Amino acid sequence: MLSAKDRRLLIKTVFVVFVGIVCATSFVYVRSKETPAQPRKVAQQYVLWPDHIRVQGDMVFADGRQVGTHRYSNMRFRVKSLAEKNYWQKMMTPVVVFVQGNQQPILPATNGHQFDAQQYYYVRRICSEVRVDQIQVLKRQPPASLIAYCHYWRAAAHQYFSHLPSPLSQYADQLVIGYQGEQTGWQETVKRLGIIHLFCLSGMHVVLLTELLRRVLVSCRLTRETVDNLLAMFLPAYLILGGGSASLTRSIIMAECRLFPARLKLPAIDGWAWSLIIGCWIDPLVLTQLGGQLSYLLSLLLHMLEQGELVKSLLLNLTAVPLIVNKVFEFHLLSFIMSYLVSPLFSLLLFPGTIITVLLWPWWSLPAESFNNLLKLTHGLLFSCSRLPGMVCFGKPPVWAVWLLLGLSLLLLDQPANRRGQLRLAGVYFIVFCQLHFPLHGEVIFADVGQGDSIIIKTPLNRRVIMIDTGGRLGFHRPRWAQGQPGRMQAEKTTINYLKSVGVNRLDAVFLSHSDADHIGDLPAVLTKLRVKRLYVPAGMEKMDKLRRRIPANSTVTVLPTRSGDYCEGMLQVVHPDYRGQGKNGDSLTLFGRFGDRNFLFTGDLDLDGEREVIRKYPQLRVDVLKLGHHGSRTASGKDFLLSVHPVVGIISAGRFNRYGHPHNVTVRRLQRLGIRTMSTQQYGMIRYRYFGRNGRWSTTLRGDELKWMLPPYSNS
Predict the structure, then answer these.
(1) CB atoms within 10 A of CB 563
(2) Are 568 and 512 in contact (CB under 8 A)?
(3) Which residues pair with 153 in a beta bridge?
(4) Structure confidence by residue, pLDDT tens digits, 411-423
């Protein structure tokens, strides 16, 4: 280990850390200044790189640089025909376009522990997005510089790889050019097993590619010095060809340092240090990303550990766990051994086989087809392993716990057999695990799922965890060519992600208010990603095909019809409906419960007639918090109903820029006249009520002023 007794080394370290912090702060400040405060009309020219154009169904996404400046924007527009879609899919050269549309800030994370798209694009120096109304191609620019040629070659490689059999095409895209397309099965599998760093983060493929090229060039009778010079010129170009990720940047800089050891006189550890300094100069936020954290940490430890391969693999995975659970909240126990088993498979077979078969494909397709079958077999084995027991939903530790666990793991590297060190590390893990999994407080959470409803209720110590509605998107008929590949459901990014971040991977029950897609559309994801015991629906809905189609064939969930008067899960009373319905708005399952010192009423899309039924049957019903029916529509939240239940707080769950105009201004003004405090997921994102005993407090993910430009006019006043 490095010693702090060397004062010069200590001074240099402090200086580098200080400069890094200043650069990162300046970087964030500049990006924030370049971010527009609110939407504005644009009519400007942009340059689009061909390898930064992605087509999904009838939507085209691209990163464009404004002509005359170095400001980048994320652009999206809809194509109107299959011919137009093919035009953008086959784009190979840089293109100058004239764009008319709205430029607006990138939406930040609106739910707790959600992926932050704003920070993701900041890292890529993109500070705004343009919703394109009209786009006109002015000219195609033939490549005129090395950078332009690299983008051209990368786009050409992607086009070439798309003709390969699957999954070879996806392996080639990801491993050779770092192309980030739709989430594929093998990516999900290696992430689940915790070996994604072998395939995408470690930069191991740069070492393998360099060695492969070296052997080819040496076989051509070139001198070692000539080979080193050629590789030194090729690697910077490959930084663009390979996608420019943090791990790729690090591995290329370290490879450059290894090519000229006699001239540079750099030991391996100094090469790593220079890769970190240059990497932070290129991307000051590199160490805030999981890819950068794992790449730099694991590559450093590889130079410092002297144990055997098996022990080294175990120690590397142990050190990576705090960083992994901080970002993805779970890890698989098999990851400790899978890295050791898969690493030689990757370096000796998968990567070289991909390169060789890809090169031979135009002249001899048999090796590619045979290798593709081997990839399918390998993926099948990995998939089977990923489904074995051992997945630990740990949750997101507090910042102090991440640093403490990382520090104790690093201390254990010097003496892996130190029992006291092992017990300290295990003890901290146990304390943090209990803190996350057995919280003393309970929560009622109104998730921001866009135009839909999804509510999570957790009682103290997580004795009961339930969900009311799952959210989902309303589907509209589109031609087959415009549909694209099915992506991840919204619940995976919002409610499921939040539950796993707090250490929850099971639900005692899911309540579905009625059959609309914006309330039950994401049910398949909830039943697949979480262990669900019971499914409650209003009587009559249990036999509907609309519901049955959304329950996976292998699901063991019990479907229970319920009606007014039922008391479910020891915490919620059903107050509507008291008849067998058809799963429509008026039949919405309406639930009453008390949490902390507040009475809550959850109404789904209950309409005015349904509200009259509730107050007729329960005239003494009083609530503190009302989840307004039908997203604040004028067809719900009638005056008589509000006066009867007398809520203090009204919660509106509605999407930004929704086509229905929810919440309606009539409803909003009615709430204001009655003195009911209103909170909307449109404005505040995820809304949480946390209680301990009879004490409770509200918190929101957003302050409320970040997205005022996206809200209806009456919400801005």
Answers:
(1) 17
(2) no
(3) none
(4) 888 788 889 989 9
